[in-house]
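Bench notes, afternoon.
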Amino acid sequence: MQETHGGLRDRQRAETLLRLHDAAIDLVQEHGLTETTVSEIADRAGVSRRTFFNYFASKEDAVLGAGEPTIPADAVDHLLDGPEQFDRAVRIVFSVASSGRHVRNRPAERRALIMAHPELKARTQHHAMIAHDLLAKALAERYDGADADRALALLLLATAVLRFAYSRDPDVLDTPDSPAVGTAINVFRTTIKDLS
């Protein structure tokens, strides 16, 4: 079976992302974050510096395998519909947060580098804030009045659930079926119920 042009392009893109990510991790492990340059990462991955910037905005993003998160245009349209609003909010926050993870390999090494380099932790938090801002903007465009308040409260609660899940499983964004998400939802449901 012949591979489609789009399929080949997608596969080549994924391979280039992986090579850049691997090169960034290896070089930072060998030389440190400050000493590693974009040019060195590009050279080790076998691409030009210009190509590097087609894939990652910074060397920090290459180490993280991350980029700007995205949100589908209609992601929040049905947030307040029906009885499963809380679960739906968690799924939306999870999908937007994980959309910024472009490469999902070597999680233990990535975590170790984040712990060793505050700049990487700050860059991770930057992406989390962008995801939050995207969701808040989408909510503001879709809802108003009391619905806007409820939608924002759900968003903030769902963000807390995801953070709780992350504290139990740091690979949660790479493993959509992680039991940590379900456990976190149950802990929050129980806690909220106990408060009422």
